[in-house]
Amino acid sequence: MNASTREQSGVTIVDVSGDIDMGTSPALRKTLLEALKKTSRLAVNLREVRYVDSSGIASLVEVLKEAHNKQKRLILFGLNKAVHEVLQLTRLSKIFEIRETEEEALQA
Amino acid sequence: MSCDKGSAPEHLATGPRGGPLKFRMRLASDPRLLPVVRSTVAELAAVWGFETEQCRSITLAVDEALCNVIQHAYKNRCDQEIELSCQAHSDSLEFSFVDRGEAVDPSRVCAQPLDETATSGRGTHLIRQIMDEVCYERLPEGNRLRLKKYLPGIKRSA
Does residue B57 belong to the interface with chain A, where contact is any CB pair within 8 Å? Predict the structure, then answer.
């Protein structure tokens, strides 16, 4: 798993690639929480994520809770089928702000 | 022993390609090995006739089971042994996980309600959602979890 951070139109975007699992989710959690400290809008690009497990979902939930606590926004975009399926299985599709494209995420 | 079993198939499907298949692997309780197992399981499920989405969900269930062993039975120690066996039957895929870690209290498995804001506890829910049979057994020196998934099209009695 790799995660890199960039700025675009006032939004912090974290581009994530690879598998998010028990071994890699702690690093993702740390990256996202650090990024959230420095922005009011955090968008996570999951287009290159091939796999996510419950620990990855838990990390995203934790970042979402932190965003809500700080009155900030977390937006996920570029989810492929595999990630959508896990969100549906965990019944969490509706708690996240999800957009198809980066453009939509920036305009959200 | 604690088992959640679906009802028995009313009839068995014609087995995919010849007789049953089986393999067994012994792996360290190291999360870095999880992608290796996922690749193997995804390929096996595809070979055995599961559709792409089901291959992904079966792979997820197996991965979650391994994570539970590492986290709960072995308390995140990475140098312990897990034995993963897989048998492909004419009607199903069956996985068995044996560890020598601490006992799992079956009554606590899935006891946690699925709260959307919870930051843990989803793994066992996922396993039970995905697999048709989930059976936990305490062994004299460890734990055994068996998971079974029937092939699509298997007619099941009510």
Answer: yes
